[in-house]
Amino acid sequence: MSPIVYLNGKFLPLDQARVPVLDRGFIFGDGVYEVIPVYGGRLFRLAQHLQRLDQSLAGIRLTNPLTHAQWQDVLAELVRCNTDAGNPDQSIYLQITRGAAKRDFGLPKDLQPTVFAMSNPMPAPAAQAAQGVAAITRPDIRWQYCHIKAITLLAANLLRQEALDQGAVEAILIRDGEVTEGAASNVFIVKNNVLITPPTGPKLLPGITRDLIVELAAAHGIACEERTITEQELRDADEVWLTSSTKEILPVTRLDGRPVAQGTPGPMWQRMIALYQDYKRTLRDANV
User: 37, 129, 253, 288: which one has the fewest Cβ atoms less than 10 Å from its Cβ?
Assistant: First the structure.
């Protein structure tokens, strides 16, 4: 059966969903998106995801067409429609574009935004995480507003493909000698038992998983710094991690073809992934 999606106020099968060819998301990439994990049928840190959605929309001068309460209802119904008893974990993708209009530069007013959301089974990162993954470094060729979760992802896709071409899973991006983020992830390093991640700002997306890891570190007495990471610090790190809603926390064990430290997932990652899984279980048990 075709999965059920949400499009402009209606729930319908994916193969019946249609948008106009003049939609500005199609013509200009004029829109934003969010990806929200669902564990055990429950939306994970929904408030934080919706807050980031609001920030992205504000960045492109677009008002959120739904209230947070309406989003809660829409996404809960979408989860219910697509829940598989054998795999209750899902990944929600939602996208808002400015809507359909005559092709012209500038930002037309009073358009009806296109609102779309779909759900897919959540991939299991555990097998990759246990062994660690390979990454490469690449110059950050993206635009200057990376804090906006925009649908204009061609540069990121090209960078990710360079990684795939080399048998790696991600490209870690460098701008002016400093680490920004991965093509589709945030980056942490560990050095001398200190967890370090680049500070939020226009150079990188404020990741929900990233922020949770910072919270967990503070709650459990793990030293954590939000500061600039130089390219050399990345290469000299004791551990390197990639984080995102779907990756969760992936240890990088090879960087540009060379081992990171001993070439195996490190002890700080072992501790943090255990804390992360405990946090998920607590939410399930609390029916959050």
Answer: 288
Q: Give catalytic residues, as residue numbers.
A: 149
188: three-class secondary structure by DSSP: strand
Extract the residue ranges of the chain whose pLDDT is less than 70.
Answer: 85-86, 125-127, 284-288
Q: What are 48-85's pLDDT values in tens digits?
A: 999 999 999 999 999 999 999 999 999 999 999 998 76
DSSP state of 22: T
pLDDT tens for 194-205 read 999 999 999 999
Distance CA 45, CA 36 (A): 8
- Cα(174)–Cα(158) distance, rounded to whole angstroms? 15
Alpha-carbon distance of 232 to 169, in angstroms, equals 21
Residue carrying structure tokens 């319908």 = 12
Q: Report the DSSP beta bridge partners of residue 12.
A: 5
pTM here is 0.93
Nearest to 41 by CA among 82, 101, 93: 82
Residue 166, classed as helix, strand or coil, is: coil
Residue found by looking up tokens 């994970």 in the block: 44
Neighbours of 159 (CB within 10 A): 23
Q: Does residue 109 contact residue 121 with C-beta atoms inside 8 Å?
A: no
Sign, Cα dihedral of 142, 44, 118, 87: positive
Report the sign of the C-alpha dihedral through residues 217, 223, 224, 230, in that order: negative
- Compute the distance between CA of residue 117 and CA of residue 126 in angstroms, rounded to an integer: 26
